Amino acid sequence: MKIILLGAPGAGKGTVAKLLTEYDGSVQISTGDILRAAVKQGSELGTKAKDYMDRGDLVPDSLIMQIMEARLQEPDCQNGFILDGFPRTIPQAQELKELLIKLGIKMNFVANLDVPRDVILDRLTTRRTCSNSSCQEIYNVKSNPPAEGGKCKKCGSPVIQRADETEEAITNRLETYNNKTAPLIGFYEKEGLLKNFLSLSSKDTVEEIKKALKG
Ligand code: ADP
Ligand code: ZN
Asked: CATH says 2-26+79-214 is which class?
């Protein structure tokens, strides 16, 4: 499959993307994960991105496009990919459109995960992430808690609250989403690529996306 997942922070894009990779071996491409790994490594990219990320601001479009132009040409993308957290702005969407034409890639559709705001807020403040950058399993202190002592069930690393999951950063991320990312819904509607999924359970949404891929 070749799809884009759209949705506010906390809408469940990461969880849905991971479940979809198990379905047909398509790779998940999360710009957030790529950036966090770069920050951890202390690479040039990471150094440039860190302050924006900690504040909950978007990283400049030019940096993101450099990453994605290279990433989409890696061999593992040929079996399909799920874009999670990209594009995030109208300029990114426009540049992606041109890039896909250049690479001869046709997307199936853009899945917009529609989640009520109170559900989003609750999820974001209760979210915890495995600190091991090659795992990054997502937990929720209420609905899906980590193992005893706050350890990851998969790899045993400590499970942490991300720097951008403080209340202030969360408010900023949601505002950034409304201003910069929500306009992509209209963009993809015009392109004839948009499909809306009222998404309260990630598992149900995955099933609906699979159906939409077949239909
Ligand atoms: P979220 O839970 O907010 O969807 P992500 O893991 O997707 O978080 O992204 C974390 C941070 O990485 C964002 O707040 C932003 O600073 C940066 N980032 C990720 N993807 C992009 C993108 N496509 N454009 C600009 N910044 C991005
Ligand atoms: Zn882990």
From this structure: alpha beta
